[in-house]
Amino acid sequence: MAPFKLHGSVLSTNTQRVLATLYEKEVEFELVNVNLGAGEHKQEPHISLNVSALLILKEKNLHHLPNIQALLGTPSKKLFDSRPRVSAWVASITGRPAWSKVLALLPK
Hints:
Elements: E1 5-8, H1 13-24, E2 30-33, H2 46-49, H3 65-72, H4 77-81, H5 84-94, H6 97-105
Parallel strand pairs: 1-2
């Protein structure tokens, strides 16, 4: 059993940020799926587990990853590609092994 449990949905950008950080730091964890569409996050036991209802993550630019990934699948991708420094930055953070592990969890 993992020493840490992450409750969330892999479709949630917030959960994706935390997953990227956990993989980046090589923290052993267990992902407990929470069906947000069914409102499980608003019911017990999830309410009692979420004491502060707030998680701020701003380390190593990982908080940008889910939104960038979504934009790369749209016509907006050309905005990243047309700017060499931005393109290099995007390639750098989306190429991280931790982010590849998060993407592997997403449905195809």
